[in-house]
Amino acid sequence: MRHKLLFVGDVVLQSAPMFSEELQALIEDQDFCCCNVEAPLAGFGAAVKKTGPLVNQRADAAPLLRNLGFDLFAMANNHILDYGDMALQHTMQAFGADVFGVGTEEEAYGMLVKELDGIRYGFVAYGENGFGALNGDREYGHAWVNSPRVDRDLATYKMQVDTLIVQVHAGVEMVDVPIPEWRERYRQLIDQGADVVIAHHPHVVQGREVYKGKSIFYSLGNFYFDGISDSEMWNTGGVLQLVVDNGEIQIADLLLVSKQGNMLSIKPKAEIQQWLEQLDRKLMDAEAYQKYVDRVAIDQWEQHHKNYYAKPFNGLARYSLKALAKHVKRLFFNREVDYSLLWHNMEIESNFWIVRRAIQKLHKSK
């Protein structure tokens, strides 16, 4: 039996989406359509204490997404617990039984199984460590991809289904290549039984590779994410269609969509091919890839992390009138150590790995 499954990246609705006729026809042609619900619904809970933005979305996002054709909802991501347990519980209830990757430990690490014509499809979702991850310091949140149980779970789940689909929310934001540590981890997920790995979180599309005959899509980017940026990269997302024949993935076709206002449209084929080939080339040449990631790490250090590491201790990483004024203000009015920011820097894998790479390269150059 032949089935079609469609996956998109991050979704945060403040406006009501509209789809082009071509995109709507594509969605209607699928047996299942899945999106990453990036934030809880507004109106419940209270903001948690964390470093980074707090995000929620319009209260009627669940019926809006279902009416648009989505029927599977991955929720293992870094914003889903931004407004606490109550908001997450309400969001899960609003979307119904087709949610996976969040809840109690049993719920979050569990596999959602859907059967079509006797073929069993298994869906699991994980995120990197973060303020909402089930990493041992909370009882409610999202599944953590580096939890010791994940590899064991995947080996077990693979024996229970014909096709095991793993989604991961991880990576360095606004960077168009995965860092080596995530490439290695996603390959491990294939080794443990995943038939495909589909990732998001960087907010931009990244390249693809085939490992041991199985596809890895490093980031689908944003599908429809309101309110933060209007850049082309932010508003360009991947739409992945899997064609599965008797439980075997035969086709993995990646398209690109463009968000303009509240309208989503599929990009022209020639533009998609050119865009994806450029991304894929960055992964093919091992030496060039390593050099590119090194440059990204150093750039991230200079633009962001140097200041992040100075700020918790009221330090000063860059000298400018604005920075000096803020530093003086902190010295007089806020001398406490920002442990939340330190945790953000050291416990979230992408942050730790990219900083470690930058320090290694900068240290060697001295």
How much strand content do the residues show?
Answer: 25-35%
How many angstroms does the end-to-end distance come to? 61 Å
Helical proportion, percent range: 25-40%
CATH topology of the largest domain: Purple Acid Phosphatase, chain A, domain 2
Number of strands: 17
Short description:
By secondary structure, the protein is α/β, with parallel strands linked by helices. The longest helix is centred in the C-terminal third of the chain and has 25 residues. The radius of gyration is 20 Å and the shape is globular.
Question: Could you explain how this protein is built, in words?
Answer:
InterPro entries: Capsule_synth_CapA, CW_Biosynth-Accessory, Metallo-depent_PP-like. Pfam families: PGA_cap. Residues 4-227 form the Capsule synthesis protein CapA domain. The protein has 366 residues and is α/β, with parallel strands linked by helices. It has 2 domains: 2-284, Purple Acid Phosphatase, chain A, domain 2 (4-Layer Sandwich), CATH 3.60.21.10; 287-365, no CATH class. 36% of the residues lie in helices and 25% in strands. 41% of the residues are buried.
